[in-house]
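[step 3/7] inverse_fold.run input=structure_tokens len=321
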């Protein structure tokens, strides 16, 4: 175990730093690295941070940090519009591969993990994302310990021998990133749309993929009358754990991973739902490339994908999520 300051001091000019994505952003390590850059102690690094929920484009960062991201997330959206970061659309995912456009052999991987178990294995917690693929290719791995991280079945682990440095996470880092409460109008729209989707587009025995978003992320709460549903998705959303407990989601008719809820990450779940998933053999988390690999998805019979459409242009092209 070392200090955050000493850990980020090992990152040198010219290094490529891959940061674990979105809900598993290692906020303490990111804050330490950001502080070092803003002090003027470090520049000329590339940061690959998919779906970054951390600002790499604040004052003193642009020019010193070259950010690559496949989402224009709120912390860096203004910089994306201004052309001050590299926006990277990703359309193809393959099992345990780093998507084309991100660096294939980063110098450093920053990732949060649980404390090790008796066999020395740490969990990636509620989100594997790309961590398995990146950990296999990174030259050095710096991990921040998150005692609150859950453990799941699947491929959600890394051994301490694979990690070069450990730091203790500050529990206050990242604590202010709360999603805004939906308006009454949004709540009403979600109820109408999901009631129709559940009744007319989802059938008993279907295998579902549900994306993040106001509508799609809430669909599980409207499926309680269905039978023998399966879940094969990148993101496990709110309400799925309850459907498993109720016997609605059984996975009995799935073509792959039968009887298992398969995802890459749990998103927007409260602690009670995460506790239901912790060491629950019904749930398995895998690398994002595995869950979104089209070669696997086309093998699922009666597969229904429900995602938010954010913008539709005049030619009919849809921007989703």
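[step 3/7] decode complete -> sequence:
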């Amino acid at each position: 175990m070392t200090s955050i300051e000493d850990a980020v001091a090992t990152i040198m000019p010219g290094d490529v730093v891959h940061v674990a994505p979105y809900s598993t952003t290692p906020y303490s390590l990111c804050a330490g690295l950001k502080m070092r850059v803003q002090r003027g102690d470090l520049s000329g690094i590339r940061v690959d941070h998919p779906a970054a929920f951390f600002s790499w484009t604040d004052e003193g960062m642009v020019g010193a940090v070259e950010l690559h991201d496949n989402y224009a997330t709120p912390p860096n959206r203004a910089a994306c519009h201004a052309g001050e970061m590299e926006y990277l659309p990703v359309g193809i995912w393959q099992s345990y591969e780093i998507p084309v456009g991100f660096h294939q052999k980063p110098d450093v991987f920053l990732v949060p993990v649980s404390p090790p178990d008796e066999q020395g294995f740490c969990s990636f917690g509620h989100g594997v994302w790309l961590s398995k693929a990146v950990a296999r290719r990174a030259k050095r791995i710096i991990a921040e310990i998150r005692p609150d991280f859950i453990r799941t079945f699947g491929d959600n682990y890394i051994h301490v021998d694979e990690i070069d440095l450990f730091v203790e996470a500050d529990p206050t880092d990242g604590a202010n990133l709360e999603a805004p409460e939906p308006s009454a109008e949004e709540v009403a729209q979600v109820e109408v749309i999901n009631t129709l989707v559940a009744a007319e587009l989802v059938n008993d025995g279907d295998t579902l993929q549900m994306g993040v978003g106001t509508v799609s992320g809430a669909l599980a709460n409207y499926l309680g009358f269905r039978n023998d549903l399966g879940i094969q998705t990148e993101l496990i959303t709110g309400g799925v754990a309850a459907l498993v407990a109720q016997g609605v989601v059984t996975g009995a008719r799935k073509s792959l991973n039968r009887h298992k809820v398969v995802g890459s990450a749990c998103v927007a779940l409260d602690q009670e739902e995460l506790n239901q998933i912790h060491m629950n053999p019904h749930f398995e988390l895998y690398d994002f490339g595995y869950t979104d690999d089209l070669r696997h998805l086309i093998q699922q019979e009666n597969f229904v994908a429900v995602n938010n459409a954010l913008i539709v242009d005049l030619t009919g092209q849809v921007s989703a999520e």
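[step 4/7] annotate
The chain has a mean pLDDT of 94.
The first strand starts at residue 16 and ends at 19.
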